[in-house]
Amino acid sequence: MRKLSKTTVNNLITYGIVIFAYILVQILLATGSLSSLLEGLLVPLCTYVILAVSLNLTVGVLGELSLGHAGFMCVGAFSSAFFSVSMQEAIASDGLRFFLALLVGAVCAGLFGILIGIPVLRLRGDYLAIVTLAFGEIIKNIINAMYVGRDSSGFHFSMKDTTSLGMAEDGQVILKGPQGITGTPGDSNFTIGVILVLITVFIVLNLVHSRAGRAIMAIRDNRIAAESVGINITKYKMMAFAISAALAGVAGVLYAHNLSSLTATSRNFGYNQSIMILVFVVLGGMGNIRGSIISAVVLTLLPEMIRGVGDYRMLIYSVVLIAMMIFNWSPKIKNWREAHPLLKRRKRGEEA
Amino acid sequence: MALLEVKNLGISFGGLRAVDGFNINIEKGQLYGLIGPNGAGKTTVFNMLTGVYKPSDGTIFLDGKNITGKKTIDINRQGIARTFQNIRLFKDLSVLDNVKVGLHNHYKYTAGTGIFRLPKFFRTEKAMDEKAMELLKVFELDGQAQVLAANLPYGKQRKLEIARALATEPKLLLLDEPAAGMNPNETQELMDTIRFVQKEFNMTILLIEHDMKLVSGICEALTVLNFGEVLAQGRTGAVLNDPKVIKAYLGE
Fold first, then answer.
1. I need a labelling partner for B112 at 20 to 30 A (CA). Which of A177, A256, A322, B19 fits?
2. Which chain B residues touch A if contact means CB-CB below 8 Å?
3. Which residue out of B47, B52, B73, B173 would a mutagenesis test of the A interface target, given it has the greatest number of A Cβ atoms within 10 Å?
């Protein structure tokens, strides 16, 4: 019983940090003390936090290395943008349309998660990492080769070019291969982003601290023992993977509706992005949701904050990354932290 | 009718016949020992009983039901739980959570109920906590319920593994070398615990052991394996005095 309440307190602190950060930003916005550069970074920041928290479910809680998280984000982004653009006239209400787009993005990404998960979750460790990495790249490239348009007779699909769609004159091309989707309504904003962050954190934390979460962590800790007490390995692996993918899809929806034109490039959906998300998770601590949030925010803001130093920016970034990694997870520092009375309390709180 | 009836069980790995013609009948409530020199095939028998290996031939009946070649999780649901020779705990979960994982199939709610914290979540979790604490109390682990399993001392980790196995409400409990690595005091304590489990839960127990003191102290009947074949079988006293058994263990 005491444990339950301790967990609850811990979760509340996590929600509190997010809400506090939101209020702080709102005050800064109201007083006009935020540069337009930072202002433009607010929604991407939420996107990264959602991605980091959802990847933590696969990497930290399920204990499987996935390098295709940007691929699921890509699926969510394009399916929802496609939905929003094609339904722009049919559904007048921005709120309702965005809500439905969210569902579309999450469900599509989740379905892809299950689809990819069926063959891939038989693999472990490095093998799983390589296959998920390939999946992310494949998704991106397929979308770059897809053309979808709509006219009075319905939807047209081609993998060649716009003319081969064979549309009537009133037709409108929605997905233009490498040019992506243009004219996505800008429905997302910082407030929606923070709400989605809270929902993501809520889902992940509650899942982890429940029957299903225990089963998932049991599989991580010892697969053979989990099987011997009657845990259905495939079911719970798939569940963690699919929920993680669906939440990455949500991040994609947020991302897509923040830009008027959405293209699948290696900058936004490539493996660099997947690895970036993995860095957030590893730095924040495997299975530590609050850590993921904080490291995603810090590592996204850092390159912008030190823009002043020009060419040395990435150099400083990598030095800070190494320093933080050592400070957070080196055994010596961990021991020192545990021995330190002031930090000790914080540490124990984090672990529960 | 016996609770566990194994007939003519055998398995080959390539050209190696690891176990051949293995028969065993265990009555309900019995404390049965499986002994034999290293490499005799004892753990292989356990792995076949729990579905880790598929037997090449033979049949396994539990409580009148054929469970030969079924999957591990199905066999656990039918009522066989086990511990491992090299302890396999969920080391990053608390002691309490380890037992609660064992309760997984007996206290159910869906993942959605858990995520949205519906009333059934709180009801079931409370019942699980109570049941798990009850089990931990039997093994005197209730004081360390919140400790991470990896941080328990060795002897207590063995006990926790038994508690977790019992949480699945088995008909038959398989213990793979429960006294391995224990000092004489811990072994004595473990013997008392095993006897207590047998009485308290009216449990049928099959155990693999090397420690002859423990075997002769608590087992009612024994099967001796040597090179994958049954060497002797029957009441503990008779089996241990069998010249064939003495020869296999001590040489001529």
1. A256
2. 50, 52, 72-73, 76-77, 81-82, 84, 88-94, 96-97, 100-102, 104-105, 107-109, 111, 113-117, 121, 124-125, 129, 145-146, 164-165, 167-168
3. B73
pLDDT in tens, B145-196: 999 999 999 889 999 999 999 999 999 999 999 988 888 888 888 889 899 9
The angle, 0 to 180 degrees and rounded to 10, between the axes of the packed helices A341-351 and A331-339 is: 110
CA distance B48 to B69: 8
- Give the CA count within 13 Å in the CB-facing half-sphere of A274: 29
Enumerate the domain spans of chain A. Answer: 2-305
Mark yes or no for CB contact A227/B73 under 8 Å: yes
Amino acid at A214: R
Which positions in chain B touch A3 (Cβ < 8 Å)? 94, 96, 145-146
CB A114 within 8 A of CB A238: yes
Q: Which residue of A has its CA nearest to B126?
A: A1
Within chain B, all domains assigned CATH 3.40.50.300 are found at 4-79+170-250
* pLDDT-wise least confident of A114-128, A234-248, A335-349, B64-78: A335-349
CA distance B159 to B126: 23
Residue of B nearest to A63 (CA): B92
Q: Can you list the residues of chain B whose pLDDT is less than 70?
A: 251-252
Nearest chain B residue to A230 by CA distance is: B73
CA angle A127, A131, A137 (to 5 degrees): 150
Where does the pLDDT of residue A345 fall: very low under 50, low under 70, confident under 90, or very high at 90 and above?
very low
The answer for A 189-208 residues in CB contact with B (under 8 A) is 202-203, 206-207
- Closest to B52 in 3D by CA, of B29, B70, B26: B70
CB contact A211 to B (< 8 Å)? yes
Q: Do B114 and A206 touch (CB under 8 A)?
A: yes
Contact A251, A73 (CB under 8 A): yes
Residue A210 to residue B94, Cβ atoms within 8 A: no
Spatial separation of the C-alpha atoms in residues A295 and A327, rounded to whole Å: 13
Is pLDDT of A1 > 50? Answer: no
Range A165-171 contact pairs with CB under 8 angstroms and sequence separation of 24 or more: none
**Alpha-carbon distance A172 to A121, whole Å?**
40
* Residue A229 at interface with chain B, using a CB cutoff of 8 Å: yes
Sign of CA dihedral B112, B113, B118, B121: negative
SS (H, E, C) chain B: CCCEEEEEEEEEECCEEEEEEEEEEECCCCEEEEECCCCCCHHHHHHHHCCCCCCCEEEEEECCEECCCCCHHHHHHHCEEECCCCCCCCCCCEHHHHHHHHCCCCCCCCHHHHHCCCHHHHHHHHHHHHHHHHHHHHCCCHHHCCCEHHHCCHHHHHHHHHHHHHHCCCCEEEEECCCCCCCHHHHHHHHHHHHHHHHHCCCEEEEECCCHHHHHHHCCEEEEEECCEEEEEEEHHHHHCCHHHHHHHHCC
For residue B24, what are the β-bridge partners? B6
